[in-house]
């Protein structure tokens, strides 16, 4: 897979290193000469250019990329790169970094963004995920289709503890993608039984999140009669 990364700062280089270790072809683009540090990621291709200019993206052969990652520290630049990648070059997958959470609403399909990653939001979500049991935590927003990656740790008294995955009537537009049980990562099948303490990861439409949280909540004892 060929991946172009706009922004060769610490974030861009870190992403490039991970992708290269996984066997992908990576091109790093940055307009600042001081950011071109070939010795830090020698296996990557490097291009000194402005990723907001069509001539630069032509030189980068963006049409050959499977993924473009807009990873600069400037939200305006990331939006322009995303829009050009999607509309001018037809890149199948565009991932954009959101630096200011106030700008997150802009990072959507209209700007060519398939996945928006807000570092402050992700960090706060991971903190919430580490300390909360029984509460739905939004980890990642997928702009295309208005879906989110969400997590919930099943509390001990959850109504669904002990229930087979295949017997659960999950909300519409909701998919259970992973069960993390201790040190194990399970691909769910219909015969898996949900256990208290399971970390459940879903891809779910935002409109279904409240319904999903209610489904996974603790048992409520019936109110005593008069």
From TrEMBL:
SUPFAM superfamilies: NAD(P)-binding Rossmann-fold domains, TrkA C-terminal domain-like. Coiled coil: none annotated. InterPro entries: K_uptake_TrkA, NAD(P)-bd_dom_sf, RCK_C, RCK_C_sf, RCK_N, Trk_Ktr_HKT_K-transport. It comes from the Bacteria. Keywords: Ion transport, NAD, Potassium, Potassium transport, Transport. Residues 1-117 form the RCK N-terminal domain. Residues 137-218 form the RCK C-terminal domain. This is Trk system potassium uptake protein TrkA. It comes from Streptomyces coffeae.
């Amino acid at each position: 897979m060929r991946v172009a990364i706009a922004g060769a700062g610490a974030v861009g280089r870190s992403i490039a290193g991970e992708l290269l270790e996984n066997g992908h072809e990576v091109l790093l683009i940055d307009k600042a000469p001081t950011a071109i540090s070939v010795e830090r990621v020698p296996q990557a291709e490097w291009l000194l250019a402005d990723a907001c200019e069509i001539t630069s993206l032509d030189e980068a052969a963006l049409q050959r990329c499977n993924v473009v990652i807009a990873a600069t520290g400037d939200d305006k630049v990331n939006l322009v790169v995303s829009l050009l990648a999607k509309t001018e070059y037809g890149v199948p997958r565009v991932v954009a970094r959101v630096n200011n959470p106030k700008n997150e609403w802009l990072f959507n399909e209209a700007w060519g963004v398939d996945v928006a990653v807000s570092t402050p939001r992700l960090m706060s979500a991971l903190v919430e995920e580490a300390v909360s049991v029984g509460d739905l935590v939004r980890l990642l927003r997928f702009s295309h289709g208005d879906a989110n990656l969400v997590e919930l740790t099943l509390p001990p008294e959850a109504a669904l503890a002990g229930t087979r995955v295949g017997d659960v009537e999950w909300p519409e537009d909701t998919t259970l993608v992973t069960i993390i049980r201790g040190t194990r990562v399970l691909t769910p099948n219909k015969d898996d039984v949900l256990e208290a303490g399971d970390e459940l990861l879903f891809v779910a439409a935002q409109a279904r999140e409240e319904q999903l949280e209610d489904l996974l909540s603790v048992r409520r004892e019936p109110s005593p009669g008069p």
